[in-house]
Amino acid sequence: MTRYMLLQDYAGPAGCKPMTEWDPADVKAHIDFQIALNQELAGTGELVDAQALAGPDLARFVIWDGQGAPVVTDGPFPESKELLAGYRTIDVASEARAIEIAARASAAPGPGGAPIQQAIEVRQVMGTPGE
Amino acid sequence: MTGLTTPAEDLLRELAPQVLGVLARRYGDFGAAEDAVQEALLAAATHWPQDGIPANPRGWLIQAAARALTDQYRSDTARRRRELAGAAREPAPAPVSGQDDTLVLLSLCCHPALTPASAVALTLRAVGGLTTAEIAGAFLVPEATMAQRISRAKQKIRESGLRFELPADEAGQATRMRSVLHVLYLIFNEGYAATAGPRLHRVELSAEAVRLARMVHRMRPGDGEVTGLLALMLLTDARRPARTGPGGELIPLDEQDRSRWDQALIAEGTALIEAAIAGRRVGEYQLQAAIAAEHDRAASVAETDWARIAALYGLLEKLTGNPMVTLNRAIAVAMARGPGDGPAAGLALLERLSGPLEGHYRLDAVRGHLRELGGDWATAAQHYQAAAGRATNLAEQQYLTMQAAKASARAAQAAARVSDGPPAGNG
Hints:
The structure holds 2 protein chains of 2 kinds.
Chain A: E1 2-9, H1 24-43, E2 47-52, E3 60-63, E4 71-74, E5 84-92, H2 95-106, E6 120-124
Antiparallel strand pairs in A: 1-5, 1-6, 2-5, 3-4
Chain B: H1 7-27, H2 30-51, H3 57-74, H4 78-89, H5 98-109, H6 116-127, H7 132-139, H8 143-159, H9 170-193, H10 203-219, H11 224-237, H12 240-243, H13 263-277, H14 284-297, H15 306-320, H16 323-337, H17 342-350, H18 361-373, H19 377-390, H20 394-420
Helix pairs in contact in B: 1-2, 1-3, 1-5, 2-3, 5-6, 5-9, 6-8, 6-9, 7-8, 9-10, 9-11, 10-11, 11-13, 11-14, 13-14, 14-15, 15-16, 16-17, 16-18, 17-18, 18-19, 19-20
């Protein structure tokens, strides 16, 4: 088995409105889809972890040169669509299976129930430095 | 944290703090005693189910823990051996009841010198008798991380020279008691914030907090704030079955199916808070419990005594100065005044929060709610949107996103009605 992270940012296809402006029924369908997908992956024994992250408004960038006070930058960020929105860690038999699951996530229902076609970044997990 | 229901396990967890109290008192080394008791508990968990519960389970555990402690010291350096010899020469401590020891233990584990996260972990292990693995599972962190958090907490106790005793003065004791209640409150909330799915096992943290609060209440039945905290936990827990939907989504109070509330818990919590609040010095937990009791006794939102809730929030606000309390008071005031001028009255109260709470998602969430009550859908949508963008809890974020979407849809409908409808006025 190999671990992969499926990473998701805020960049939808061009013209896709923020979720707070969708039809309420579409919002519900989207959330239900994510829950169902997690339950399915837990059921197949492939889900390690799934986490949503708090929004870009709360994101901070920290840089330190090792002396003095670290530089902490907060938003709004011009490239906030590229920030991570959430991730799934899966433990699967093959890369093909990881891509299959990523494809499912990409086709999550968006406005009007149409597949949202969000790009899902698929990255193999290597391990924790020092362990 | 599963399978805690067999009599042997219940007994073990009841005895754990008493045994630790005896050892900590006898050897004066809390950190080592705590490790030794964990070892004894693990031994008992292995032997008792096979051999049966011993005739004197408390004595069995004390003996096993003392043996573990002696082994630990024996394998240590000569310096440690001298320390033990010194401790053994001290006069035998005056006999104290296990209950008193448990209180001393709690106040040590919840000491204000510890960070809240350390105090929570140490309390669950030393007083709750849970294993490190169980606590790690409940907080969704690796076991090694939790073990480290606990050992750092014990190190902090050692470095700060904290002794296994309560302060002699009443004010000092009251301060310690406040931190004990705060830690139990944190444990309860940690479990209560959990909803469904993989986080379901965290729910048992609430049960553990209730068990510990019951224990403290038995030891200090006359302490109004202890009673208040226990009542608050029961009255809050009573709504748990109705609080989330099948997908773990939050269901707000006004949409909950009240027939699913646990009436036994409500009856017990209400009786406790009514007895506590009559005539004694009122505190923060008693007021919160009294508010929870008002909600729990109402058959619907419309039948809720909002005026009384607003008054209770007013007292709580004076007592704590907590801006989060003002947020809740604003909603209660708006509900008490009714749909006419209620929303405006609530919004006026929020103005003073624009300093301390500006940018906090709950302030925007309440603004959205009050605008919604006033029928101003477009502004409500903006506030809900801002709140969703800053939410730090997934269930709340999803709820706020949904509220924003609903308010946007209502605003669009209202706009469409205006543009499609007959021209306004007589012109």
